[in-house]
Amino acid sequence: MAFPPRFLDELRARVSLAELVGRRVRLVKRGREYVGLCPFHNEKTPSFSVVEEKGFFHCFGCGAHGDVIGFAMQTGNLSFPEAVELLARQAGLEVPRQSREEREKAERQATAQSAVEAACSFYEETLHGPLGRDARKYLEGRGLDVAAMRRFRLGYAPDGRDALKRALAQNFSQPLLVEAGLVKQPERGGEPFDYFRHRVIFPIGDRQGRIIAFGGRILGEGQPKYLNSPETPLFQKGRVLYGWAQARAAAAREPSAIVTEGYMDVIALHRAGFTTAVAPLGTALTEMQLEELWRLAPEPVLCFDGDAAGLRAAGRALERALPLLRPGQSLRFATLPPGEDPDTLVLHQGAEAMREVLERARSLAETLWALETARPADTPERRAALEQRLEARVRSIADRTVQEHYRGFFRDHLFASRGRSPRRGGRRGFAPIEPNAGVRLNSAPPFEGKPTIEPTALRRRRQEVLLAVLLNHPFLLSEVEQDFAEIPLAPDLDRLRHEILRLLPLNPELDAAGLKLHLSETGFAGVVQGILSSQILKHAAFARPDADADTVRMGWVDAKQQLEERHLRQQIADSAQALAEDVSEENWARLQGLRAALEAKNGEDGATGGGVR
User: Fold this and answer.
1) Which end of the chain has fewer CB atoms at under 10 Å, N or C?
2) pLDDT tens readout for residues 96-128
3) Mean pLDDT, the chain, as a whole number?
4) Counting Cβ atoms within 10 Å, is residue 220 exposed (0-12), middle (13-18) or buried (19+)?
5) First vs last Cα of the chain: how many Å apart?
6) Are 285 and 315 in contact (CB under 8 A)?
7) pTM for this predicted structure
8) CATH (one of 1.25.40.10, 3.40.630.10, 3.40.1360.10, 3.40.30.10) for 244-370
9) Phi, psi of 326 (to 5 degrees)
10) What is the mean pLDDT of residues 483-512?
């Protein structure tokens, strides 16, 4: 949700930054500032400064910077709304609700969550009572003692149609139990019955650790072997990872993440000291779950069985992840010994065996290469097919910088597979064409003179103006997202763009202040400061914070059209220069195509005005 600026100002005024930081860092007062060892990187000499009267912290070693909300986000691995709510509770402030509908929704969810929590307690106590004897026996056979069962709040759903329903009937209505996914209403009518019956219960928590759903493993024969709670207002399976709250607390101390396939794997790894282990809920990782993983660590390790099913699971995860890769953000893949999963490996061979598996994890690029080269490429046709598949994979990566590095990685591997040294020189594809191969020298007209090239500083300024519009008016992104994703940007601005495109869909009501704070806290402070400087905004009134919505929209369209036209003209100049240096059919065709595109664009846009020249 979006928070009113006055509320955020009051929150920052109420919470002492020095006191909050002082809970994690030993601070020494020096004049008007406090100094200490930075909590975000290892150092021996203090370079971390807290300026209480101005409400910000700054590290002169690693560049970390922010206010009290930013510190809570970074140290607690929290989203912006979560950090605000945490600090508000500490300060005794009530978080404002925007509408009656939002309040009613929150109240319904709180009541449903209370019912789920009560169900969790019922399942726990049943496991440790007379009815839970067989379930306890099963868990003990999997290597768990009573202390472990209590620690992970494991339970047992007794065999019968209405044991849970009867236990909760006094405090919760039947419709609420249905809405919370605890009992099921038959499609053909009749009395609702317990959703879980004769199953070992694994409670599933949300990002704060509150129980929102359950997974159930049947005892004895029956299908399905594992059953998850149905989708409810509290629980959307594709957004949740089992063990996430515990992993987040551990990752705040040492960023890492391990992804396994099942509940017991997560429990076994946590008990063995691998406390950042999580698991999807019986399905392939979703895009939303991948984003959650990257909140824990830049390169989570996915553990899969070494059999055919494990390879297929790795392939599915890899395919989902490729479009989302960004500089410094990827996955690694660990292969377990045949017949083992993390649970059995730790049980039979100990934590050291698991640690060795994790240390041997391969990068995403290496894993992709292994998957694609599993088929033979021993003929020209098969080799061509391999190159086609690799190029298709590379093109699926949205970030252009990462895309080019993957293209280079595969090019080097292809040359090495032929016993040759890596080669460079081709902008696209994996096998650069030899210079002037098949060129008809009389196929292009002579080129006279050197084309005029727009200064780099002016080209960058046009790009910065468009980013300034979205930083000051994030509401616009929902209207221009596709155009924003496609405009040409410098590499550092492109990285900022991808972070904005990643963040705002996850927090659609994030305001300009929250957006800027998040970007500053994730390594973009310098870029954001440059974009919002007076040197940029003085050229574009429509990008300033006080511009009205219609002015913002019209200014965006005009500035985007100018940027695209200038970019086309720059490409034409580059292509003309390339043609002068290498008169080839390819260069000639590219130049003609760009000229045609410019003519078509001018015909569509007509004369533009009022933007940045």
Assistant:
1) C
2) 866 667 666 666 766 888 999 999 999 999 999
3) 83
4) exposed
5) 37
6) no
7) 0.59
8) 3.40.1360.10
9) -140, 165
10) 80
